[in-house]
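Priority: medium. Attachment 1 of 2:
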């Protein structure tokens, strides 16, 4: 599986790495300030792995690895994780050619634009909230949760894995929903509008599953990290996710089911009645998101150019040496 544990959000940098390695017995930190070198070393390390493993993708990238978790071995190799018990220092190993950069730093222009976009999004939500039938959506939500969590309780302490399934990258919005849900028996696609209770529903579903002892994976919104976008229960083999832009998807399989929060909130006709006002808000929101994304893209592209150049100067034998240091720490 691939997912993010860090993201640049409207509320600053959020890091859930610790929420994914809490039950790992052996954690090795790759100390590095060049995400391309980290990815190359991890790629070399993964070539010798035959069992399934999770890939933690570097924030702002489409596929650069910043960590791997081998659940069968209870082993994790993660970039720049202070909670690790062992460290392999790539900065020291490749120090003479290493380009230093903070890959988690948010450009100020990006942070400002995202915060402005969040303020506009709140205005967007307000229109729908003021027109919702709360009693109707509450009954609908309770019914769906009761059906999804109807399984008999199991013993043991339930675990929560907090992640992001997608984020903004230099190549545009990216998500790993398909890879995270491909082996699930049931997938539920939530359709709705801002403020119609999608995240609240997912939080209540999470609580219901946890109370019955089931482990859950919670995937948060990389724009608003206080909002949930997906909940997965591997034990019950289902996933429920917010299937609206920028990660809009439609049913493809027999057991893909739509949960229409727009209709169930009693909002039919609201889009038409507030067409002009909603269009104005959406345009302003989209403009701020583009502004933030362009700021991010420009900053990361400049750093990546230098980082890739530094990587090109490292010989394959030196990458193999770094891999051997990791393997030695796992013995």
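Attachment 2 of 2:
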């Amino acid at each position: 599986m691939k997912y993010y544990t860090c993201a640049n959000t409207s509320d600053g940098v959020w890091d859930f790495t610790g929420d994914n390695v809490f039950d790992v017995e052996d954690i090795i930190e790759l100390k590095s300030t060049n995400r391309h070198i980290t990815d190359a070393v991890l790629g070399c390390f993964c070539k010798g792995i035959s069992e399934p493993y999770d890939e933690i993708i570097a924030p702002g990238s489409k596929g650069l690895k910043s960590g791997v978790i081998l659940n069968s071995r209870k082993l994790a190799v993660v970039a720049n994780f202070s909670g690790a018990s062992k460290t392999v220092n790539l900065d020291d190993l490749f120090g003479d050619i290493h380009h230093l950069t903070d890959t988690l730093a948010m450009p100020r222009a990006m942070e400002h634009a995202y915060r402005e976009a969040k303020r506009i999004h709140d205005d967007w939500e307000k229109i729908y909230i003021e027109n919702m039938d709360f009693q109707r959506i509450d009954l609908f939500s309770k019914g769906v949760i009761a059906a999804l969590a109807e399984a008999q309780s199991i013993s043991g302490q339930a675990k929560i894995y907090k992640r992001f399934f997608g984020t903004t990258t230099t190549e545009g919005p990216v998500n790993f929903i398909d890879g995270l849900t491909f082996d699930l028996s049931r997938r539920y696609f939530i359709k709705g509008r801002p403020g119609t209770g999608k995240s609240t529903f997912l939080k209540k579903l999470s609580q219901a599953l946890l109370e019955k002892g089931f482990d859950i994976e919670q995937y948060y919104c990389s724009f608003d990290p206080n909002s949930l976008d997906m909940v997965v229960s591997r034990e019950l083999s289902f996933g429920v996710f917010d299937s609206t832009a920028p990660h809009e998807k439609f049913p493809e399989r027999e057991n893909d089911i739509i949960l229409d929060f727009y209709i169930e909130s009693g909002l039919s006709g609201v889009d038409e009645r507030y067409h002009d006002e909603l269009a104005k808000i959406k345009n302003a929101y989209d403009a701020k998101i583009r502004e933030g994304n362009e700021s991010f893209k420009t900053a990361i592209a400049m750093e990546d150019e230098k980082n890739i150049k530094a990587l090109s100067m490292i010989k394959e034998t030196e990458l193999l040496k770094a891999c051997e240091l990791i393997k030695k720490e796992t013995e």
